[in-house]
Specification:
Elements: E1 3-6, E2 9-12, E3 16-17, H1 23-36, E4 40-42, H2 50-59, E5 68-73, H3 83-94, E6 99-104, H4 113-125, E7 129-135, H5 139-147, E8 154-158, H6 166-174, E9 178-182, H7 194-203, H8 207-216, E10 221-223, H9 230-237, H10 246-254
Parallel strand pairs: 3-4, 4-5, 5-6, 6-7, 7-8, 8-9, 9-10
Antiparallel strand pairs: 1-2
Length: 272
Amino acid sequence: MKHITIKGTAIPALGFGTLYLDEKTALRMVGAAISEGYHHIDTAQIYQNEAPVGSAIKASGVDRDNIFLTTKVWLDKMTRKDFLPSVEESLRKLKTDYVDLLLIHWPNPEVPLAETVEQLQLAREKGYSKHIGVSNFPVKLVEQTLALGADIITNQVEYHPLINQTKLYNYLRSKDLTLTAYSPIAQGEIIGNEVLRSIGEQYGKSEIQVALRWMMQQDGVFAIPRTSSEANMKANSQIFDFELTQADMAQIDKLKEQNRRVVTPDFAPEWD
Protein backbone atom coordinates (compact mmCIF):
# COMPACT_ATOMS: atom_id res chain seq x y z
CA MET A 1 0.00 0.00 0.00
CA LYS A 2 1.28 3.44 -0.92
CA HIS A 3 1.16 6.16 1.74
CA ILE A 4 1.31 9.93 1.42
CA THR A 5 2.78 11.71 4.43
CA ILE A 6 1.17 15.01 5.38
CA LYS A 7 2.18 16.93 8.49
CA GLY A 8 3.71 13.80 9.97
CA THR A 9 0.68 11.61 9.22
CA ALA A 10 1.16 8.71 6.79
CA ILE A 11 -2.17 8.37 4.96
CA PRO A 12 -2.98 5.37 2.74
CA ALA A 13 -3.26 6.64 -0.84
CA LEU A 14 -6.00 4.11 -1.59
CA GLY A 15 -9.10 4.38 0.56
CA PHE A 16 -12.61 2.95 0.65
CA GLY A 17 -15.56 5.21 -0.18
CA THR A 18 -19.09 4.69 1.12
CA LEU A 19 -21.30 6.84 -1.14
CA TYR A 20 -24.75 5.28 -1.73
CA LEU A 21 -24.10 2.39 0.68
CA ASP A 22 -27.14 1.80 2.88
CA GLU A 23 -26.66 1.02 6.56
CA LYS A 24 -26.54 -2.76 6.22
CA THR A 25 -24.22 -2.66 3.21
CA ALA A 26 -21.96 -0.04 4.77
CA LEU A 27 -21.55 -2.14 7.91
CA ARG A 28 -20.66 -5.21 5.84
CA MET A 29 -18.41 -3.50 3.32
CA VAL A 30 -16.44 -1.30 5.71
CA GLY A 31 -15.76 -4.31 7.90
CA ALA A 32 -14.67 -6.34 4.89
CA ALA A 33 -12.53 -3.49 3.55
CA ILE A 34 -10.69 -3.08 6.85
CA SER A 35 -10.09 -6.84 6.96
CA GLU A 36 -8.66 -6.59 3.45
CA GLY A 37 -6.22 -3.92 4.59
CA TYR A 38 -8.00 -0.67 3.77
CA HIS A 39 -7.19 1.72 6.62
CA HIS A 40 -8.53 4.89 4.94
CA ILE A 41 -12.32 5.15 5.15
CA ASP A 42 -14.43 7.96 3.70
CA THR A 43 -18.01 8.87 4.63
CA ALA A 44 -20.18 12.00 4.89
CA GLN A 45 -23.21 13.33 6.73
CA ILE A 46 -25.35 13.18 3.60
CA TYR A 47 -24.52 9.49 3.01
CA GLN A 48 -26.58 8.63 6.10
CA ASN A 49 -24.24 5.80 6.99
CA GLU A 50 -21.89 7.33 9.55
CA ALA A 51 -23.35 5.11 12.30
CA PRO A 52 -22.67 1.77 10.54
CA VAL A 53 -19.26 3.02 9.41
CA GLY A 54 -18.42 3.77 13.03
CA SER A 55 -19.77 0.40 14.14
CA ALA A 56 -17.69 -1.41 11.54
CA ILE A 57 -14.53 0.37 12.65
CA LYS A 58 -15.28 -0.45 16.29
CA ALA A 59 -15.90 -4.11 15.47
CA SER A 60 -12.84 -4.46 13.26
CA GLY A 61 -10.38 -4.91 16.09
CA VAL A 62 -8.06 -2.42 14.41
CA ASP A 63 -6.86 0.35 16.69
CA ARG A 64 -8.72 3.61 15.97
CA ASP A 65 -5.39 5.41 15.59
CA ASN A 66 -4.57 3.08 12.69
CA ILE A 67 -7.67 4.09 10.71
CA PHE A 68 -7.72 7.33 8.73
CA LEU A 69 -11.36 8.41 8.86
CA THR A 70 -12.92 11.21 6.83
CA THR A 71 -16.38 12.77 7.05
CA LYS A 72 -17.90 15.82 5.41
CA VAL A 73 -20.27 18.57 6.53
CA TRP A 74 -23.33 18.98 4.30
CA LEU A 75 -24.58 22.13 2.59
CA ASP A 76 -27.31 22.93 5.11
CA LYS A 77 -24.88 22.92 8.06
CA MET A 78 -22.43 25.59 6.89
CA THR A 79 -23.48 28.39 9.24
CA ARG A 80 -21.95 29.39 12.56
CA LYS A 81 -25.13 28.11 14.23
CA ASP A 82 -25.18 24.65 12.66
CA PHE A 83 -21.64 23.64 11.72
CA LEU A 84 -20.14 22.50 15.03
CA PRO A 85 -23.34 20.83 16.31
CA SER A 86 -23.45 18.81 13.08
CA VAL A 87 -19.85 17.70 13.55
CA GLU A 88 -20.60 16.70 17.15
CA GLU A 89 -23.52 14.62 15.87
CA SER A 90 -21.25 12.99 13.29
CA LEU A 91 -18.77 12.05 15.99
CA ARG A 92 -21.53 10.47 18.06
CA LYS A 93 -22.71 8.44 15.08
CA LEU A 94 -19.15 7.44 14.21
CA LYS A 95 -18.54 6.42 17.83
CA THR A 96 -15.27 8.32 17.98
CA ASP A 97 -13.86 11.41 19.65
CA TYR A 98 -12.35 12.70 16.42
CA VAL A 99 -12.10 12.21 12.69
CA ASP A 100 -8.79 12.39 10.91
CA LEU A 101 -10.11 14.65 8.18
CA LEU A 102 -13.13 16.96 8.14
CA LEU A 103 -14.25 18.45 4.83
CA ILE A 104 -16.65 21.10 3.62
CA HIS A 105 -18.63 18.82 1.28
CA TRP A 106 -19.75 21.44 -1.27
CA PRO A 107 -19.42 25.21 -1.37
CA ASN A 108 -22.62 26.98 -0.35
CA PRO A 109 -22.86 30.43 -1.95
CA GLU A 110 -25.69 31.39 0.42
CA VAL A 111 -23.32 31.30 3.41
CA PRO A 112 -20.18 33.47 3.50
CA LEU A 113 -17.15 31.25 2.93
CA ALA A 114 -15.35 33.07 5.75
CA GLU A 115 -18.05 31.97 8.20
CA THR A 116 -17.84 28.33 7.17
CA VAL A 117 -14.04 28.25 7.10
CA GLU A 118 -13.98 29.82 10.58
CA GLN A 119 -16.12 26.95 11.85
CA LEU A 120 -14.00 24.36 10.04
CA GLN A 121 -10.90 25.71 11.73
CA LEU A 122 -12.68 25.83 15.08
CA ALA A 123 -13.64 22.17 14.72
CA ARG A 124 -9.97 21.29 14.41
CA GLU A 125 -9.01 23.56 17.32
CA LYS A 126 -11.55 21.73 19.47
CA GLY A 127 -9.97 18.41 18.56
CA TYR A 128 -12.92 17.20 16.51
CA SER A 129 -10.60 16.64 13.56
CA LYS A 130 -6.86 16.26 13.08
CA HIS A 131 -6.89 17.72 9.58
CA ILE A 132 -9.26 19.85 7.52
CA GLY A 133 -10.01 20.22 3.83
CA VAL A 134 -12.58 21.02 1.19
CA SER A 135 -14.48 19.13 -1.47
CA ASN A 136 -15.81 20.17 -4.86
CA PHE A 137 -13.96 23.49 -4.74
CA PRO A 138 -12.70 25.01 -8.02
CA VAL A 139 -9.39 26.88 -8.01
CA LYS A 140 -11.00 30.24 -7.20
CA LEU A 141 -12.63 28.93 -4.01
CA VAL A 142 -9.49 27.07 -2.92
CA GLU A 143 -7.61 30.35 -3.31
CA GLN A 144 -10.18 32.12 -1.16
CA THR A 145 -10.01 29.37 1.46
CA LEU A 146 -6.24 29.64 1.70
CA ALA A 147 -6.48 33.45 1.85
CA LEU A 148 -8.70 33.03 4.92
CA GLY A 149 -5.81 31.24 6.62
CA ALA A 150 -7.25 27.71 6.51
CA ASP A 151 -4.48 25.12 6.70
CA ILE A 152 -6.28 22.60 4.49
CA ILE A 153 -4.57 19.45 3.22
CA THR A 154 -6.79 18.30 0.36
CA ASN A 155 -9.57 19.04 -2.10
CA GLN A 156 -11.80 16.03 -2.75
CA VAL A 157 -13.16 16.18 -6.30
CA GLU A 158 -14.32 14.05 -9.18
CA TYR A 159 -11.17 12.65 -10.75
CA HIS A 160 -10.71 9.83 -13.25
CA PRO A 161 -9.07 9.32 -16.66
CA LEU A 162 -12.04 10.75 -18.57
CA ILE A 163 -12.17 14.20 -16.94
CA ASN A 164 -9.78 17.10 -17.41
CA GLN A 165 -8.76 18.38 -13.99
CA THR A 166 -5.31 19.55 -15.09
CA LYS A 167 -5.77 23.18 -14.01
CA LEU A 168 -7.05 22.21 -10.56
CA TYR A 169 -4.46 19.46 -10.05
CA ASN A 170 -1.55 21.73 -11.02
CA TYR A 171 -2.82 24.48 -8.74
CA LEU A 172 -3.19 22.13 -5.78
CA ARG A 173 0.31 20.75 -6.24
CA SER A 174 1.71 24.29 -6.51
CA LYS A 175 0.29 24.91 -3.04
CA ASP A 176 1.50 21.53 -1.74
CA LEU A 177 -2.10 20.34 -1.42
CA THR A 178 -3.34 16.88 -2.32
CA LEU A 179 -6.21 15.84 -4.54
CA THR A 180 -8.59 13.17 -3.28
CA ALA A 181 -10.33 11.42 -6.17
CA TYR A 182 -13.95 10.47 -5.78
CA SER A 183 -15.73 8.55 -8.55
CA PRO A 184 -12.26 7.40 -9.66
CA ILE A 185 -13.73 4.97 -12.17
CA ALA A 186 -16.29 7.52 -13.42
CA GLN A 187 -19.06 5.50 -11.77
CA GLY A 188 -18.33 2.62 -14.13
CA GLU A 189 -18.02 4.62 -17.33
CA ILE A 190 -14.39 3.60 -17.83
CA ILE A 191 -15.41 -0.06 -18.09
CA GLY A 192 -14.97 -1.11 -21.71
CA ASN A 193 -12.62 1.76 -22.54
CA GLU A 194 -10.32 0.40 -25.24
CA VAL A 195 -7.20 2.26 -24.13
CA LEU A 196 -7.50 1.10 -20.53
CA ARG A 197 -8.44 -2.41 -21.59
CA SER A 198 -5.48 -2.70 -23.95
CA ILE A 199 -3.03 -1.50 -21.32
CA GLY A 200 -4.57 -3.81 -18.73
CA GLU A 201 -4.13 -6.86 -20.96
CA GLN A 202 -0.36 -6.34 -20.79
CA TYR A 203 -0.44 -6.78 -17.02
CA GLY A 204 -3.38 -9.11 -16.52
CA LYS A 205 -5.38 -6.25 -14.99
CA SER A 206 -8.83 -4.74 -15.58
CA GLU A 207 -9.63 -1.25 -16.83
CA ILE A 208 -10.54 -0.31 -13.26
CA GLN A 209 -7.24 -1.54 -11.86
CA VAL A 210 -5.34 0.35 -14.56
CA ALA A 211 -7.23 3.58 -13.77
CA LEU A 212 -6.56 3.24 -10.05
CA ARG A 213 -2.91 2.43 -10.69
CA TRP A 214 -2.66 5.54 -12.89
CA MET A 215 -3.79 7.59 -9.88
CA MET A 216 -1.38 5.88 -7.50
CA GLN A 217 1.52 6.87 -9.77
CA GLN A 218 0.63 10.56 -9.63
CA ASP A 219 2.11 12.84 -7.04
CA GLY A 220 -0.25 13.82 -4.24
CA VAL A 221 -3.33 11.87 -5.33
CA PHE A 222 -5.59 9.77 -3.10
CA ALA A 223 -8.36 7.58 -4.53
CA ILE A 224 -11.47 6.39 -2.67
CA PRO A 225 -13.34 3.92 -4.91
CA ARG A 226 -16.74 2.78 -3.64
CA THR A 227 -18.30 -0.60 -4.25
CA SER A 228 -20.93 -2.83 -2.67
CA SER A 229 -19.12 -5.95 -3.94
CA GLU A 230 -16.48 -7.59 -1.77
CA ALA A 231 -14.87 -9.11 -4.87
CA ASN A 232 -14.56 -5.71 -6.51
CA MET A 233 -13.26 -4.16 -3.30
CA LYS A 234 -10.50 -6.78 -3.16
CA ALA A 235 -9.70 -6.31 -6.85
CA ASN A 236 -9.42 -2.55 -6.33
CA SER A 237 -6.63 -3.12 -3.83
CA GLN A 238 -4.67 -5.41 -6.14
CA ILE A 239 -2.89 -2.57 -7.90
CA PHE A 240 0.46 -2.50 -6.15
CA ASP A 241 2.02 -5.49 -7.92
CA PHE A 242 2.55 -3.79 -11.28
CA GLU A 243 3.71 -0.43 -12.59
CA LEU A 244 2.56 1.52 -15.62
CA THR A 245 5.24 2.77 -17.99
CA GLN A 246 5.60 6.41 -18.94
CA ALA A 247 4.07 5.52 -22.31
CA ASP A 248 1.09 3.91 -20.56
CA MET A 249 0.62 6.98 -18.39
CA ALA A 250 0.78 9.27 -21.44
CA GLN A 251 -1.84 7.19 -23.26
CA ILE A 252 -4.19 7.39 -20.29
CA ASP A 253 -3.54 11.11 -19.88
CA LYS A 254 -4.88 11.69 -23.39
CA LEU A 255 -8.29 10.35 -22.37
CA LYS A 256 -8.93 13.53 -20.38
CA GLU A 257 -9.59 15.31 -23.68
CA GLN A 258 -13.12 13.81 -23.43
CA ASN A 259 -13.66 15.87 -20.26
CA ARG A 260 -16.64 13.80 -19.14
CA ARG A 261 -18.07 14.79 -15.76
CA VAL A 262 -20.43 12.29 -14.10
CA VAL A 263 -21.34 14.29 -10.98
CA THR A 264 -23.33 17.38 -11.98
CA PRO A 265 -25.81 18.50 -9.29
CA ASP A 266 -27.66 21.73 -9.86
CA PHE A 267 -25.93 23.30 -6.85
CA ALA A 268 -22.41 22.70 -8.21
CA PRO A 269 -20.06 25.68 -8.51
CA GLU A 270 -18.67 26.90 -11.82
CA TRP A 271 -16.01 24.32 -12.63
CA ASP A 272 -12.52 25.08 -13.92
